[in-house]
Amino acid sequence: MVLNRWNDAEAKKFTDQVGPDTPENAADRELALRVYTSRLIGADLDLVLHGGGNTSCKVKRRDIFGRDIDVLHVKGSGWDLGVIEPAGLPGVRLAPLQDLRALDALTDEDMVNLQRANLLDSTSPNPSVETLLHAFLPHRFIDHTHASAMLSLADLPNVSDIVREIFGDRLVCVPFIMPGFELAKVAAQVYDDNPHVEGLILINHGHFAFGNSARESYNLLIEHTNMVEDWLAKTSGTVPARASGNSPEMSENAARILPMLRGIIGDAAAKHTGNRDAPMPVMDLRNGANVQEFFNRDDLPALSRRGVATPDHVIRTKNYPLHLTADILAGGRKAVTAAVDAYITDYTAYFDTNNARFQAQTGDTKTMLAPTPNLAWIDGVGVVGISANAKAAAAASDLAAQNITAMTNGQNCGGFHPVSAQKLFDMEYWSLEQAKLGKGKPPALQGQIVMVTGGAGAIGLATAAAFAALGANIFLVDLAQDALDSALETLGSGHAGIAMDITETGAANRAMDACIAAFGGLDILVSNAGAAWTGDMATLDDADLRKSFELNFFAHQTFAKAAAAVFDAQKRGGQILFNVSKQAVNPGRGFGAYGIPKAATFFLLRQLALELGPSGIRVNGVNADRIRSGLLDADFVTQRATARGIDEETYMAGNLLRREVKAPHVATAFTALAQATRTTAHVITVDGGNIEAALR
Q1: pLDDT tens digit string along 603-642?
Q2: Are strands 524-527 and 574-579 parallel, antiparallel or unpaired?
Q3: Distance, C-alpha 554 to centroid of its chain
Q4: What angle do CA 563, 549, 579 make, to 5 degrees?
């Protein structure tokens, strides 16, 4: 059951932000309510996912000449309904759009150009590719969604009969046509032939509801969706499980399978692009209740080749998932590689067949997208989104979870029959759909998964932020949950972490498993966590020295060992970066308990570089000094400066450059090493200049 979340008090807050109910404010108050209901729709994952769907309203405004004109506000490309602002519903002059209905044909390029030419604000985003459908229908408010229930309905073989059974003459069906001019004309004609209807079912596509107010249109959207949900439950006698929770057993299996698969797909991508250093994909794992229930079906192999519930999904998931059965997994890396190769062969044949058809029709050709899978169904593991970064991978797995619900409902109620591969190709390779994916140069470290230990500390968080700014997805490890949560909030979405004591037995492997469950593998380990025990060695308690070695040496060693195992499973190289210390080469009085294990870590770095280099794994480090973190807290700095009779700034700038070295400077050294693709066994000193600590 989809909840109706309209609230009069909340709606009033939106209109109150505009101003009093006066003729001058009328259009903006209507737009405010359009924003409010758009957010209600976008916040419900049973209605829309990842920018899908669109909303609109028609208002009266005055142009620069003081003339009243009709304006269509429609969702702009790139905006998510769940967080939309008024700017995300750009205004377009309505009359020129409506004039287009008289044309017999219109190219996509001319459609986009005319829509942009009639924007009230030329800096606005492109209006939705379905703008003309909103323009050709007469209603003031229109909502278009891809609700899970509606997709189940839209993909039934006898959808028109079922729509009449559920709705009588309240809704009517529109045949599948790609979004754009032709669909807008056909849908408008269907409405003209049935002017009493409250909405449209676009076969194999989605649902339109409309009304004369934001609330009326929204209410109908919810009512229609729940009527379909009720019919599905009554007809099938069951309701599919929701996409919630996870299976610890399946997640444990993921630690064994996903790095191997990630490396295999990375190899295939490198072969396709001709770039041997092409990044591996990021993965997003789902094995909630709906996945567990779905994987128990007897017809799973057949459904894996059935297709997507709506063509809108194809740009993120491709038509089919890579289906790795238990038999394939039992065959190990060789069998999984063969399955990926077979997927690529099938996708290439799909492209070649449809590209030849496209060329025969238009005289033009398309360029094949990466033929590697964007989605995998893995027995005993779950559904895995596969893409260039964590956000895109999560979008793919979210859509896959919705597709599972639509498939289950459809199969249980007469059959799940989405659009043909031919029509899907036209959507996947449609220039306007491709534009949604973005064409800019990717960030330097997109696709890189970076684990940072001590990630909530000053140096750790600065380093994580520096890697994130370069496009990496970050996995933080820190001792305290509250500090970890705060650090992840600072980084923003697309990152994850785990709170643990890294000196505990098995901690490194647990951290790696959690990182694999979050992102599918690992590319860079920044082994950063450390703390200083002080005291003269001649009188130091043995227990304190052992504690220091556990954190400042053995934790580095166990995490490096665990990371190397992940790198070996991926077989695509990797990087280990150590935060060593000036103390490793230039001991300070009273810091022996800190410097000695750091010196051992320095040697560990060199030893690992020697041993792991032939596998393409680089091992480097940073020697930093006098950074405001850990031991060098505010009290310590004050005490040391006072003892020397200088101010704090002078104390912190006690180096050759006479400038304080801060955590972001250390972070820059780590990211520089990460991008120095032919450098290993190297340590960068970041201390502003300390000749006594200079490396020879």
Answers
A1: 999 999 999 999 999 999 999 887 887 666 677 777 777 8
A2: parallel
A3: 34
A4: 50
User: Cα–chain-centroid distance for residue 72?
Assistant: 31
E strand spans, 275-402 = 282-286, 322-324, 375-378, 382-387
Q: Which of 88, 95, 89, 87 is nearest to 71 (CA)?
A: 95
pLDDT digits (tens, 9 = 90+) for 345-386: 999 999 999 999 999 999 999 999 999 999 999 999 999 999
How does 97-122 read in b/e, with b if 16+ C-beta sit within 10 Å?
bbebeeeeebeeeebbebbeebbeee
The pLDDT score that the predictor gives to residue 353 is 96
Q: Which residues contact 470 (CB under 8 A, 6 or more apart)?
A: 443, 444, 445, 448, 671
**One-letter amino acid for residue 57 of the chain:** C
By the 8 A CB rule, do 171 and 227 touch? no
Are 609 and 652 a contacting pair, CB within 8 Å?
A: no
Q: Mapping DSSP to helix (H, G, I), strand (E, B) and coil, where does residue 259 land?
A: helix
Q: How far apart are CA 627 and CA 664, in angstroms?
A: 10
382-387 vs 473-478, strand pairing mode: unpaired
Cβ proximity of 39 and 33 under 8 Å: no
pLDDT in tens, 88-104: 999 999 999 999 999 99
325 CB burial (10 A radius; 0-12, 13-18, 19+)? middle
Identify which of 176, 125, 590, 591 has the alpha carbon closest to the alpha carbon of residue 424: 176
Residues 245-266 have pLDDT tens digits of 889 999 999 999 999 999 999 9
Q: Cα(162)–Cα(169) distance, rounded to whole angstroms?
A: 12
The 3-class SS string of 478-520 reads ECCHHHHHHHHHHHCCCCEEEECCCCCCCHHHHHHHHHHHHHC
Q: Tell me the C-alpha distance between 368 and 345, whole Å.
A: 13
Q: How many CB atoms lie within 10 A of CB 78?
A: 12
pTM above the 0.70 mark? yes
Question: Hey, what domains does the chain have and what are their CATH numbers?
Answer: 8-235 (3.40.225.10), 254-437 (3.40.225), 449-625+661-686 (3.40.50.720)
